[in-house]
Amino acid sequence: MPKLWNETIEAHRREVRDAILDGTASLAAEHGPLSVTMSQIAEKAGIGRATLYKYFPDVEAILHAWHAREIAGHLARLTEVLDSAEGPATRLESVLEAYALITHESHSHQDTDLGAFLHRDNGDHLAHAHQHLHHMVQHLLTDAAQAGNVRDDIPPNELTRYCLSALAAARTLPSEAAVRRLVTVTLAGVRPPQH
Amino acid sequence: MPKLWNETIEAHRREVRDAILDGTASLAAEHGPLSVTMSQIAEKAGIGRATLYKYFPDVEAILHAWHAREIAGHLARLTEVLDSAEGPATRLESVLEAYALITHESHSHQDTDLGAFLHRDNGDHLAHAHQHLHHMVQHLLTDAAQAGNVRDDIPPNELTRYCLSALAAARTLPSEAAVRRLVTVTLAGVRPPQH
DNA sequence: GCTTTATCGAGACACTTTGTCACTGTCAAT
DNA sequence: ATTGACAGTGACAAAGTGTCTCGATAAAGC
């Protein structure tokens, strides 16, 4: 196996790949994901159609790759938020709020839940990126539960799904203030029930 | 304008239409919605391809119609539940639980959030069916808020989005018991905050 | 009952999209 | 300089698409 290539060629490939993903996202946003064709994508990306097949086997794979890139970007931002907060409760609230806001602004770009739709992933990319996110929130919830800020009568796994799903509603909300209210309500659901 | 046709022809059309929708759902479930073609659908439904175009203009329209039919069925079941419950709090809980269970079992059929994905609806079918659902839940929440069972510091509209979105997590849960726990948590989010 | 009329269904056609060749040009390694 | 690997492209066969036209069938008018 020859040593890996020079920087130049790999950088170029990345550029082309990104152009493909951007173009596809644009096309999908404009005419709907079902009407996107390999031909359109190739033209939009400024490459030959046959070349496109050297990067991706079909439209579905491209949409998956785009979604994975999107999620990865979100994860990076969330990790920043995570690291800059102190204490289990604060960390949980900060990350959930950040997630909701990201989801909210992603709406205008009209992307999300494409992943849920395209669940032809057989435990691959989507699973990876999304499980990463899931794991992060679950960890936060477990910590907060140990600190007594979160109910412990429900498995953390299920609380995590609840949080992520509830906050997905941020996509449909009109204002940032509404998103913050959504976070409030969602957090109210995970607090220990009083008796 | 000639009076509308006899029952027979219309019944036949409905049969064919249903066969198309069923076949499409089956194909979409098996190979993913993006790879479904008009040719496959026609063959599966047992009609000529050209005939299929007399019913629907393209795959997207068929998926929309199938989704609308699905939602309509769910709505009918929810309306039953709604009518057989007494009192604002009980009604809210019953309907939300029923919705979660329906979502849960719909998972195996792998359908939902296809609607969210195909938001090429310009205020049409999807809007109609889904807004009907939204309206039902919002009404329940408003009643329950007036009775003091639900917080009134958040607009009912937003609480509704929260509920429906949170309960969508039922799709990914493994057991019915987990779904009931999800309903518990979701309801905890909408209760009046204590001070 | 028989014609009229509307519409269902299918064969056929022109066009687009798809997936895969074989081929050229370029860069890195020896 | 030669070799090997790979990006990129034009070309081709196959599949899918949308439309048109034509025959068959069932309701409606006389």
From TrEMBL, chains A, B:
Domain HTH tetR-type: 14-74
DNA-binding region, residue intervals: 37-56
Domain of life the protein comes from: Bacteria
A single MF term (Gene Ontology): transcription cis-regulatory region binding
Signal peptide: none
Alphabetical list of Pfam families matching this protein: TetR_C_43, TetR_N
Keywords: DNA-binding, Transcription, Transcription regulation
Protein name: HTH tetR-type domain-containing protein
Organism: Streptomyces pilosus
